[in-house]
């Protein structure tokens, strides 16, 4: 059954308005209420929009509310996270992303990374800070615990760490794609000062980064491959998948797997 989006948005707003208890929101409870829940006037006042606008939305009269209006109505209607995401989807809008990044991996993701052994796996935030990893990832790259927290960042390592810089056979492509990913993250989190400082540090400390950043390339790809020239295992080709957990959308789970038999044998040697 195909549902008209405007009609579904209208029905969704009405149902969420009608389920609210005025008394719980500190609103005066009048004896004569012809419909359950809040009045349209009350929703409009809580959201800071006109009553006529709420009426037209609930009548499916072809309006497309802005992201700010959707945010305001979501707050007024006390929508939970799932309902809020659904409302934004119906309105064809994207919610604003808070600049604050996760500094620790969710416990369930830490356990998942450990359970993925012998596949190398790690968790990053939107800045590409490394939050959790398993022993196999340490064997492939390096022991991240030996680094200061500010340098536990995939982009910084690829650009400025002397060992990791020489690890990738096709380093130019890896760096180019990494910078494009970082620009995409920056666009989604323009108020993140830590991310801005990371970009400034890389641009100052690496001419290659500054050149690639100036091209304006963007990329949002969670799948690919990397060829590494490992000092102990020789050449290894690894495919990677980047997954975003539904409950922790700011955290990225990255899993590597050997691309061929030779790489699988090399990984067995390492792990």
Automatic annotation (TrEMBL):
Domain of life: Bacteria
Domain HTH cro/C1-type: start-end pairs: 29-84
InterPro entries: Cro/C1-type_HTH (IPR001387), Lambda_DNA-bd_dom_sf (IPR010982), MLTR_LBD (IPR041413)
PANTHER family: BLL4672 PROTEIN (PTHR35010:SF2), BLL4672 PROTEIN-RELATED (PTHR35010)
Protein's name according to its UniProt entry: Transcriptional regulator
């Amino acid at each position: 059954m195909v549902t008209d989006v405007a009609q579904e948005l209208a029905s969704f707003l009405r149902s969420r308005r009608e389920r609210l208890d005025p008394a719980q929101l500190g609103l005066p409870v009048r004896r004569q209420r012809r419909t359950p829940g809040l009045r349209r006037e009350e929703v409009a006042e809580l959201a800071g929009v006109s009553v006529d606008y709420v009426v037209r939305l609930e009548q499916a009269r072809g309006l497309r509310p802005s992201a700010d209006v959707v945010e305001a109505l979501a707050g007024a209607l006390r929508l939970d996270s799932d309902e809020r995401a659904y409302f934004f989807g119906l309105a064809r809008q994207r919610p604003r992303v808070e600049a604050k990044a996760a500094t620790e991996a969710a416990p369930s993701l830490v356990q998942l990374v450990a359970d993925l052994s012998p596949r190398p796996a790690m968790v990053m935030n939107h800045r590409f800070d490394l939050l959790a990893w398993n022993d196999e990832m340490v064997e492939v790259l390096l022991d991240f615990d030996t680094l200061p927290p500010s340098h536990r960042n995939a982009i910084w390592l690829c650009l400025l760490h002397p060992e990791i810089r020489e690890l990738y056979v096709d380093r130019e492509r890896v760096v180019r794609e990494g910078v494009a990913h970082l620009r995409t993250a920056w666009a989604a989190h323009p108020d993140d000062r830590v991310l801005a400082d990371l970009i400034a540090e890389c641009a100052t400390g690496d001419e290659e980064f500054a050149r690639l950043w100036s091209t304006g390339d963007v990329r949002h790809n969670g799948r690919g491959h990397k060829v590494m020239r490992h000092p102990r295992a020789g050449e290894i080709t690894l495919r990677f998948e980047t997954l975003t957990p539904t409950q922790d959308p700011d955290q990225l789970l990255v899993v590597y797997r050997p691309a061929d038999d030779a790489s699988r044998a090399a990984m067995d040697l390492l792990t």
